[in-house]
Design brief:
Helix content: 25-40%
Order of helices and strands: EEEEEHEHEHEHEHHEHEHHEHHE
Strand content: 5-15%
Number of strands: 13
Shape: globular
Strand order of the largest sheet: 4-5-13-10-11-12
Distance between the termini: 61 Å
Radius of gyration: 19 Å
Structural class: alpha/beta
Oligomer: single chain
Length: 373
């Protein structure tokens, strides 16, 4: 049986496109795609009866019919960190980061589309996730990475069979190189920023929190933000669950103080973010100077009644060590949320509200943040 795939739609100009023939970005404005898909709130959602993976939320996902790509991703533990604060251990995913949530969706989509090759760009975690899930799906994969990418992460990509293209320059240079390849015939661009199917994978993070909390959500979701793929997925899920009568939480977005275009725009009351310099930071996974979905991210945080917080590198280092001493060894970027709302955070950012934050990358991938010289 053939199932139709939800099509792309541009949130800026309304352009529509068929997933099977669409370019990787909107041909009119060059922006990222959204998805012409809204789950039916009346459809039964009984995850406990589904598989032990994020496919348990099938009625809320945009890939209808039987799936074949999975590594039993998702269903990660929710553990207490402090009074009224829980951490979701997404670093326990198959490739040790939350990016598996979106990668499995794009790999399944690519499997159905049947491209000659898959290309992606990444500073590390997304690339390792795409390499693993393309291997699972039997797809040829190339990952473009900036010079200086963690050798542990590029080694993992190669181990999964991916071709790693090291691009001189920073993160944006790797993205440009991947997009040039994506314009060639027979290529599927597995972009965790431009392809909205990825966001419908990351939204399962919130569905799992809802399931673990017995059909409720906390008052606050604290989320690290660079390109905003986890936050926008969270916003999708909270809207979808609100249609089922679930009270939506406020979204607190966390950025590195060194590279914080979204936080600056939010506090200035701007609807769009201006690009900032690419400065070094230990929270490299969220150091994105010009996020393509900035307008959507800012709107989602405002709509939720949330805010943006920034954290300096010294606090990220302290938070990473604090978590490790609680038995949770995560990479520096994954410690950013705890740096923002944990012990020693300025003020009382949670205001005694219940909260969940993600620990979204394993410390084994990058080690401890180096102390300042």
């Amino acid at each position: 049986m053939t199932h139709a795939l939800p099509g792309y739609v541009c949130s800026e100009d309304g352009t529509l496109a068929d997933v099977r023939t669409a370019p990787w970005c909107c041909p009119v404005c060059g922006g990222p795609w959204d998805l012409d898909f809204t789950p039916d709130p009346a459809a039964p959602l009984e995850p406990a009866a589904g598989p032990n993976s994020l496919w348990r939320y099938g009625p809320a996902l945009p890939l209808p019919g039987a799936y074949s790509v999975s590594l039993a991703e998702g269903n990660t533990p929710l553990v207490p960190l402090a009074e009224r604060v829980h951490a979701k251990l997404d670093f326990l995913m198959p490739t040790l980061s939350f990016k598996d949530r979106g990668a499995v969706m794009l790999a399944e989509l690519a499997r159905r589309l049947g491209p000659r090759r898959v290309v992606a760009d990444s500073s590390g975690n997304a690339g390792t996730a795409f390499a693993a899930y393309c291997a699972r799906a039997g797809l040829t994969c190339e990952v473009f990475v900036p010079e200086g990418t963690s050798p542990k992460k590029t080694e993992q990509m190669r181990a999964h069979g991916a071709t790693v293209r090291v691009v001189p320059g920073g993160r944006e240079a790797a993205a440009v190189a991947a997009r040039e390849a994506a314009d060639l015939p027979g290529v599927f661009y597995a972009s965790h920023v431009f392809n909205p199917y990825f966001l419908h994978g990351t939204k399962t993070y919130v569905y799992e929190v809802w399931e673990a909390l017995g059909g409720h959500l906390p008052e606050v979701l604290v989320v690290p933000v660079g390109n905003g793929t986890l936050l926008l997925g969270a916003a999708l899920a909270t809207e979808e669950l609100a249609r089922r009568g679930v009270r939506p939480p406020a979204l607190i977005a966390v950025q590195s103080a060194a590279v914080a275009p979204l936080a600056s725009a939010f506090h200035a009351g701007a609807e769009e973010a201006e690009a900032v310099p690419q400065l070094p930071t230990v929270a490299e996974g969220i150091a994105i100077p010009a996020p393509p979905r900035a307008r959507q991210i800012l709107a989602a945080v405002r709509k939720s009644g949330g805010t943006f917080l920034t954290v300096p590198d010294d606090r990220v280092r302290e938070a990473q060590l604090d978590l490790a001493r609680r038995g949770l060894f995560v990479e520096p970027t994954a410690a950013a949320c705890w740096a923002a709302v944990g012990p020693g955070a300025p003020g009382n950012p949670l205001h005694e509200r219940t909260a969940v934050l993600p620990l979204c990358g394993a410390g084994a991938k990058s080690g401890l943040a180096a102390p300042e010289a």
